[in-house]
Amino acid sequence: MNISILGAGAMGSLFGGLLAESGQKVRLLDIDERHLEAIRRQGLRLETDSSDRRIDGLAACRPEQAPGHADLLLVFTKTLHTEPALRSAAGHIGAQTLVLTLQNGLGNAEAVSRHVARERVLIGMTNWPADLLGPGHVRSHGEGVVRVLGLEGGASRGASQVAQVLDGAGLQCRVDRDVWTSIWEKVAFNAALNSLCAASGCTVGQLGAAPEGVALARHMVLEVLAVARAAGVAVDEQRCLDSVAFAMANHRDHKPSMLQDVLAGRATEIGAINGEVLARARQAGIAVPHTETLLGLLRLIEARM
């Protein structure tokens, strides 16, 4: 396929690199000129558990410079940049282009469908780990999965084709009719760890080392999953709590992306995570005091920056 990655940070570059290695034609679209130039000049350096290598043959440019139309556009931008990024890439989205969002949080499908016909929008979730170490240099240790589905809810031909392509790149992808379960459980995971670490300055391990951190994370998970159930989504409370506990025990030095944004003075994705959960909670008449308090704290931190 002719695949473009909109938002070639850590995750976008990981996916782009692995897809290129599997034989797909890949173009990375981003506005970080240093990252793009490093990839054009010397390829993408990709560190995984299997090896440390350079991947050549990746095209890299700004979204508005992308030629022709992509068969598949993977959206990995931060949620607050989704709409301007899609506007920039509008000339690269043709009448047959499939658009898959694997972004964090809620509201992404609605944002994409304002720019692309709903029947060509795919939604999904991934928990692959990735870190951007510098221009043209990405590291991913451990493994993950990808779950996708057509926005209209069916296992469409497009979703099946995309799942096959991603799976062929080693990304462990399948079509999942219960993808909203995966999306909401990841929102609960991120609401617990991202917002708490961003507000406290703690790494994941430091959060887990304090009884207060463990208790707050549990409250966050339970509040988010209550909102998911009110929306008719079946979620597994114990599975989500186990995922948080595993991260605290095994990813002790990890700084979640929201904490990295705070440390760098950037706007965060708190609106797409805690903010969207709060909005849906209010519609359902559910109290989510911990979620709301952390949203307020992160808004204060952003305002200070």
UniProtKB/TrEMBL annotation:
Biological or metabolic pathway of the protein: Cofactor biosynthesis; (R)-pantothenate biosynthesis; (R)-pantoate from 3-methyl-2-oxobutanoate: step 2/2
Catalytic activity: (R)-pantoate + NADP(+) = 2-dehydropantoate + NADPH + H(+)
Domain Ketopantoate reductase C-terminal: 178-302
EC class name: oxidoreductase
Matches recorded under InterPro entries: 6-PGluconate_DH-like_C_sf, 6PGD_dom2, ApbA, Ketopantoate_reductase, KPA_reductase, KPR_N, NAD(P)-bd_dom_sf
Domain Ketopantoate reductase N-terminal, chain residue ranges per copy: 3-146
Keywords (A to Z) from UniProt: NADP, Oxidoreductase, Pantothenate biosynthesis
Keyword NADP annotated: yes
Matching Pfam families: ApbA, ApbA_C
Transmembrane segments: none
Signal peptide: none
Record EC number: 1.1.1.169
Function, in words: Catalyzes the NADPH-dependent reduction of ketopantoate into pantoic acid.
PANTHER family: 2-DEHYDROPANTOATE 2-REDUCTASE, 2-DEHYDROPANTOATE 2-REDUCTASE-RELATED
Family as reported in the entry's similarity comment: Belongs to the ketopantoate reductase family.
Name this polypeptide is given: 2-dehydropantoate 2-reductase
Organism per entry: Pseudomonas idahonensis
